[in-house]
Amino acid sequence: MTEAQFAVFRATAEEGYARQIADSGATSWQDAQDKAAADYARLLPDGLATAEHHLWHAYDGETSVGVLWLHIAPKATGSEAYVYDIAVDEGLRRSGYGRAIMRAAEEECRGRGVVSIGLNVFAQNTAARRLYEQEGYELTSLQMRKRLT
After folding, report:
1. Which residues contact residue 80 at a Cβ distance below 8 angstroms, ignoring those fewer than 6 apart?
2. How many other CB atoms are there within 10 angstroms of residue 118's CB atom?
3. pLDDT tens digits, one per residue of 89-124
4. Nearest by Cα to 67 from 18, 22, 100, 110
5. Whole-number Å distance between alpha carbons of 26 and 145
6. How far apart are CA 73 and CA 103, in angstroms?
7. Kindly report the CA angle at 83 between 31 and 59, in degrees rounded to 5?
8. Contact 100, 67 (CB under 8 A)
9. N or C: which end of the chain has fewer CB within 10 A?
């Protein structure tokens, strides 16, 4: 990912993250925006140069089809990766690109000696949940809420 691509990614990904937070019902739109901005500032303080964070654009030939953001860090049991973001451009979704990006991430991680990959998915994102389950990701925690009003 280039610096110019990162600037676009940061703005659109942060807004998308805020939208998912708000859509989950966890908080107001303003609070979701504030949380997203704070999370991105904390996680990527040096932008593309942030240690242990890797951001890529995915291409099909010359056409950019999506992005991937991985954090890879050493742990006691071996290096672990965390997918902070995977996104396929809106007009190209449901075309196999998400699966291809996930598989490319796995190959990159294997090449780096990573022993596991984790991620978070919001409950309302059923298409992503289905993809991750098909790719062998297992449920590791579950948060629930009951609305009283």
Report:
1. 72, 73, 114, 115, 116, 117, 118
2. 12
3. 989 998 999 999 999 999 999 999 999 999 998 888
4. 100
5. 9
6. 19
7. 110
8. no
9. C
* Segment holding 135, helix H or strand E: none
Q: What is the DSSP string of 72-92?
A: EE--TTS-EEEEEEEEE-GGG
Per the listing, tokens 């809106």 go with 90
Output helix, strand, coil percentages for the chain, rounded to the nearest 5. Answer: 45, 20, 35
Around Cβ 67, how many Cβ atoms within 10 Å? Answer: 22
Contact indicator for 48, 54 with CB cutoff of 8 Å: no
> At 25, is the pLDDT very low, low, confident or very high (cuts 50, 70, 90)?
confident
> Residue 135 above 90 pLDDT?
yes
Which pTM was predicted? 0.88
- In the numeric block, the tokens 């932008």 are attached to 47
